[in-house]
């Protein structure tokens, strides 16, 4: 990695982010709560990190725009089409994960 320029590093990181977002977009069956339980982050986290990065650079990106970058649609649209009600088991696992 010492041979990469800073621009090449940025381009690789951006490509990896785009691939992660595309992968999550292809797996709409995977609920955010499941991601939080298993990995400690979800689509909402990625949206918040995207927004924070924009804020760090004083770029005019709204939270809604950041979510659309990750969800590939509005957040409300995604919730209506893909988000299921959390099961008692999911809620219990989330609670256990947060207390660990």
Task: Describe this entry's structure for a reader.
The protein is mainly α. It has one domain: SMc04008-like (SMc04008-like fold). Helices cover 72% and strands 0% of the residues. It has 6 helices and no strands. It has helices spanning 6-26, 32-39, 43-56, 63-71, 75-82, 88-99.
Short description:
The protein has helices spanning 6-26, 32-39, 43-56, 63-71, 75-82, 88-99.
List descriptors.
100 residues; mainly alpha; SMc04008-like fold; 6 helices; 0% strand; globular
Mean pLDDT: 95
Kindly provide the name of the CATH class. Answer: Mainly Alpha
Give me the strand/helix succession. Answer: HHHHHH
Strands, total number: 0
**How much helix, percentage-wise, in residues?**
over 70%
Largest β sheet strand count, sense and barrel closure? none
How is the secondary structure organized here?
Elements: H1 6-26, H2 32-39, H3 43-56, H4 63-71, H5 75-82, H6 88-99
């Amino acid at each position: 990695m010492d041979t990469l320029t800073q621009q090449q590093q940025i381009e690789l990181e951006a490509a990896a982010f785009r691939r992660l977002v595309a992968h999550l977009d292809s797996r709409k069956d995977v609920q955010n709560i499941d991601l939080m339980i298993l990995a400690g982050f979800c689509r909402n986290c990625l949206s918040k990190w995207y927004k924070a990065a924009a804020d760090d650079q004083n770029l005019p990106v709204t939270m809604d725009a950041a979510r659309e970058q990750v969800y590939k649609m509005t957040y409300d649209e995604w919730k209506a089409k893909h988000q299921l009600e959390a099961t008692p088991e999911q809620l219990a696992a989330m609670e256990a994960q947060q207390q660990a």
